[in-house]
Design a protein that fits this description.
6 helices, Immunoglobulin-like, 5-stranded mixed β-sheet, 38% strand, Muramoyl-pentapeptide Carboxypeptidase, domain 2, alpha+beta, 24 strands, single chain, elongated, binds zinc ion, 368 residues
Length: 368
Amino acid sequence: MTRRAAVLAVGLLSACGEGVATLGDDVVPADDALASTEQELISCAARSETGYENGRSFAITVVTVDGKPAERKTANAYALMQQAALRDGVRLSVVSGFRSMSEQRFLYACYVNCSCNDCNLAAQPGSSNHQSGEALDLNTAAPGVLGWLNRNGARFGFYRTVPSEAWHWEFLGPTPGPGPCDGAGGGSTSVLRFENLETGGWYTNGLWMRVQAGPGVRFVTYSSDGFPLGASEHRADGFSARYVFSSIGERAIVAKAYDAERRLLGEALVQVRVTAGEPSRGTLDLESPEDGGWFENGIWLKSRVSGAITRVRYSAGGFPLGESTDAAGRFPVRVTFSSLGWRVITAVGVDARGVEVARRSVVVRVSP
Ligand SMILES: [Zn+2]
C-alpha cells in the first residue's frame, strides 16, 4: 500500500507540472506487429532469478508471457488483464518484462553513452522496476491499447507510473484473482487465500484483510472467534476489509468465500498477532439494514457512531451508494439497487478531515 501510494504521488506531482521525468527507463517498445505474434502465450515453467530493488538483491520467480520473462505475480495479473482486454477486442502484449542486471547495465550504458537503444532513458542498474519484477512495457502504440489500459489497468493492479512513458506499466496490486501460474506447480488455483496476512505475522492494529479468490466468488466475509470483522463484494480491491480490534494480542482470522447464492465455496485461516497501532478514534455500527436479512429494494442505511466520526459513506462492491453528515438522523441514506441478490453494504465513518475512523459491513439479500 505504501509503495502504491508513493508511486501514485509521483504521478500526481508530475501531472501538476513538476516535471518528474524520473524513475525512468526504458526500451522503446518494439514493432507492435512483431510483438502481437507472440501474444496470449504464457508458460508457467518457473525459474529463479536475481531481482533488485533500490540496489538490494533478492530471489525472484520468473515465468514467460508473450515470449518475455516476467515476475510470476505480475504475469498472473497481466494474464487476467490480457483476457479481459481481449473480450473487449483489444490485444495486449508485453514488449519488455523482467530484466537481469546485465540487461539493465547494457541499457544504462546505451543511455549514458548515447550509443544504442536510441539513447533512451534507462534507470541505474539495480534500481529499475523492470529488475524488481513489477514493470512491464506494453504495446501502447497499437490501436485502442492505451485507452483501454487507462480505463481498466487499475482494476488489475496496473498503473502507469512514468508520465513520459505511455508504455511503462507497473503491477502494484492488489492481485486481481488467481492467475494461470498460481500454485507451486503452476496452474493450480485455490478458491481462497489471504494475500497480505500470514500465520505467525505481527500486524499493527487497524489491520486490512485482503484475499485472492477464485472465479465464482461473489463476496468474502471475515470473522474472529465467530465475531464478524467485515465483508466485501469488491473483487478488484481484493475483497478487502479493515478492522480495529478493541484489544491487541493473538487472533485467528477466518475468511469465507461465497457464491452469488451465498453458498460457501472456501475458507482460509491465519493466526496473527495484532500489535498496538493508532488508538481507536471512534466506533461505527451499521444499524440498518440488519446483517443476514432479506429486504425489498429501496433500503434505508443508518449508522450509529461515536468518537471523531462526522460523516458516513456507504458503498457496495466499490460503488458509492451515498453519504450523510446528519448525525441526529443516524446518517441516513436511501438506496435502490439495480443489481439484486446478496449484496455487501459497507459503511465507512470518517472524521472532519475525511480520514477513515471505522467501518462495518453487512451482507443482505435484496429482492425486487
Ligand atoms: Zn519500462
